[in-house]
Amino acid sequence: MASPLLSSQRLLLLITAVLILNSQLPSSIASLAGNVLAPIVNFVSLPLRGPIYSTATRIAEREGASDFAHPGVPQTEEELRFAYGQALVEIERLKQEYEELKKRLELIEGVQAIDALETRPVTAKVTSYRDPGPRRVITLNRGSRQGIQPGMTVVYETVLVGRVVDPVGPSSSDVELVTSHDGGLQVRIRQQGIAMPFDNIRVRPSETDPDYFVAEVPKDSLIRSGAVVILADAVNYSDARGRLLGIVERKSDYTPDPELLDQLWIRAALLDTPFRKEVAVLLPKTAEHAAGN
Amino acid sequence: MNWIVFSITAYIFFALQAGLEPLWAVGDATPNLLLILAVFVGVSARKSAVPWGMLILGLLLDTLPGPLVGQGVILGPHAVGYLVGAYAVLQLRNLLFRESTITIVLMVFAVGGFAALVETLIYALRGLPWLANQGLGWSATEQLWRRLQELIYTAGVAVPVGLMLQSSRKLWGFTGRSKNERVF
């Protein structure tokens, strides 16, 4: 017959094994027990923890209000005037930035209204991000059960994120980011202040910086930094035409032919979105009907 | 060991640890009061009670916000780390004078070191593709460096807290060594 200590040791081993297993499961399952225990612990400890926390916060704020904690706080009238002047400049800069962003948004929305295809977005959470060599891949928590198939376009709001690739699992799928696209993409570039867009421009991922696309344009082109790059490819990502691909960040001489051509450096717009949290997969309307059946 | 005294002390230490964070955080580091309590229990309690006490303290720590932002509360990393720490303290405690505060300070480094290694390893394993495949977006080296800072801070705080705990030994009902425990 086992002694109580031995059975206690066995129980400990079992608990250890369960805890190790629990800590290696996906968070949706692993956090089940924790999400039950944590509120209980919080509730029980709150009568003591609450007053301690509020007292500690008050003391910390009082200490934080001293000159030592905030050496940048203006002390003299002259410093105060200088700070006020700086604040006015900052407000002016923010106003300009707001106007520019507003105009860009109007441009994008205008193009989308023309080109957007009939699709149904299915939101999906991003469960992982991998960067194996030149390919950047995210994994979604939606798969074939939700009607997702290889080749479908993935977006974050108006921004193109990438494309679903093989294999697609029942409840998970991999998405190759557009920055890893192998080959060129046809785009349309809209320059603020110019009514007609620049069509038939081909961009490709930069070989030196994976955050950028590059494109060559004639030396006399009016495209400048801040121009909006929108996908207009009929072969690749055909259902994502009108989606934002990037923003022209700078223009430099195209080294092989600096006399005739400039090179545009286009920062991928998806990098400025929280695409690693949640995205939307564009399902064709027909897929919706098929799933419904 | 008197489990009622343990529960009350654990409750107070947990409340203090979570409540005092805004006041005594230095950078990212805050002292770990529950680790000091775990070490005190580890060096003083009967062999059979040590793993259970440390498991409970580890589970309590797991309920506090960890490095997994947006992934919920995951039980395991601290609890398993403290169980490994319990094994370490049981191996080492016979070499040291148990009723000394210096022992508690030294054991904070030993137990905390083992617990930090295990905890970081468990979190790091979550990033492997054949396991949970949920990376944290941090490097294990940075996490270990942060935990080392916390250990140094905790060791500093362990001096007054250890003195206080040692002075309350009578309340704890520690009855010496277990029947089969080796002295040397």
Search tags:
heterodimer, A: alpha+beta, six-stranded antiparallel barrel, six-stranded antiparallel beta barrel, 4 helices, B: 184 residues, 8 helices, 65% helix
Structure description:
Chain A is α+β, with helices and mostly antiparallel strands. Chain A is built from 4 helices and 12 strands; from the N terminus they run H-H-H-E-E-E-E-E-E-E-E-E-E-E-E-H. Chain A is flat, with a radius of gyration of 27 Å. With 184 residues, chain B is mostly helical. Helices cover 65% and strands 0% of the residues of chain B. The longest helix of chain B has 28 residues. Chain B is globular. The model of chain B has no long low-confidence stretch (mean pLDDT 84). At the A-B interface, helix 1, helix 2 and strand 1 of A face helix 1, helix 2, helix 4 and helix 5 of B.
In summary, what is this structure?
The complex is a heterodimer of chains A (293) and B (184). Chain A has 293 residues and is α+β, with helices and mostly antiparallel strands.
Topology record:
The complex is a heterodimer of chains A (293) and B (184).
Chain A: H1 4-23, H2 27-64, H3 77-115, E1 119-130, E2 137-140, E3 153-156, E4 159-165, E5 173-177, E6 185-190, E7 198-205, E8 212-218, E9 228-231, E10 244-253, E11 261-268, E12 278-284, H4 285-292
Antiparallel strand pairs in A: 1-2, 1-12, 2-5, 3-4, 3-12, 4-5, 6-7, 6-9, 7-8, 8-11, 9-10, 10-11
Chain B: H1 3-19, H2 21-24, H3 33-44, H4 50-62, H5 77-92, H6 101-125, H7 140-167, H8 169-172
